[in-house]
Amino acid sequence: MHKLTVKSTAVAVITPFCADGSVDHDALARIIHFLIDSGIDFLVALGTTGESVTLTNDETQAVFATFVRENKQRVPLIMGVGGNCTRSLVERFQTLDTTGFDAILSVTPYYNRPSQEGLYQHYMALDAVTPLPLFMYNVPGRTGVNMTAQTTVRIARDAKHIVGVKDASGNMEQGAEIIAQRPTDFLVFSGDDETAIPLTLLGGDGVISVIAGGFPKAFKHGMDLALEKNEAEATRINQQFKPIIDLLYQEGNPAGIKAVSQLLGLCEANLRLPLVKPTDALVAALQPYVSKLN
């Protein structure tokens, strides 16, 4: 396994689309090179920000192949593989082509709203069959259920192949509880840009970020300061990014970060329905920040 950096700034990478709705693999290659050249530590392919739920199986495999081809083993790669039917997901894990990838990120089951015991059993079932180290992904704002600190730590202690969590709850108290109670080798990454620096200052291991997809050097600098426990300067940078984060989510994710990517000349800001392109007003509001921080 290409060992993941323990202290890291990662990006949940967008999936660019052409005007006709097809995946723009040339633009995806530009984005991958841009992020790696900017010092990002590892990349996540087809997480939430990658609009994974709108891609066909063939498109998913083609996107994964583009990541592997363009990365050339420069940074670790994580593939997003989630679902809300445990049995189907177990079957999928057993046939996954994981060539070129280092770990899997799997979101908590969405829409079903399972109990904490259901979440525990779901991840233990995945733990039994995963072909790569596995990260859990808790994002209650999208899934309808919050995986508590107690459940997260219980899984961390009982599972053999689950190595960390991306916690996008935005709940600092919950994040701090996981950090305090986790096994020593269990990684805690923030999945919420606004609280990523504060959580890292509390002892977190880094972030799987949206905003770093458009401002990689500047946001990574803030995260590095947090990892070094430079609280004053890291907090200043966190405040600097707050208005940008507010704009990025004003019209939903990934509309905002696709607007930034368009301003950077990386891709067009096309999304797949039911998501729609960012408005001209949002693009204009983001322009000064893109010019200043890149």
Your description of this structure?
There is one protein chain. The chain contains twelve helices and eight strands. It is α/β, with parallel strands linked by helices and 294 residues long. The protein has one domain: Aldolase class I (TIM Barrel), CATH 3.20.20.70. The protein has an eight-stranded parallel beta barrel with strand order 1-2-3-4-5-6-7-8, surrounded by seven helices. The relative contact order is 0.14.
List keywords for this structure.
294 residues, alpha/beta, TIM Barrel, eight-stranded parallel beta barrel, 12 helices, 8 strands
Short description:
With 294 residues, the protein is an alpha/beta fold. Helix content is 46%, strand content 13%.
Q: What is the CATH topology?
A: TIM Barrel
Helix content: 40-55%
How many helices? The count is 12
Q: How are the strands of the biggest sheet laid out side by side?
A: 1-2-3-4-5-6-7-8
Bin the strand percentage: 5-15%
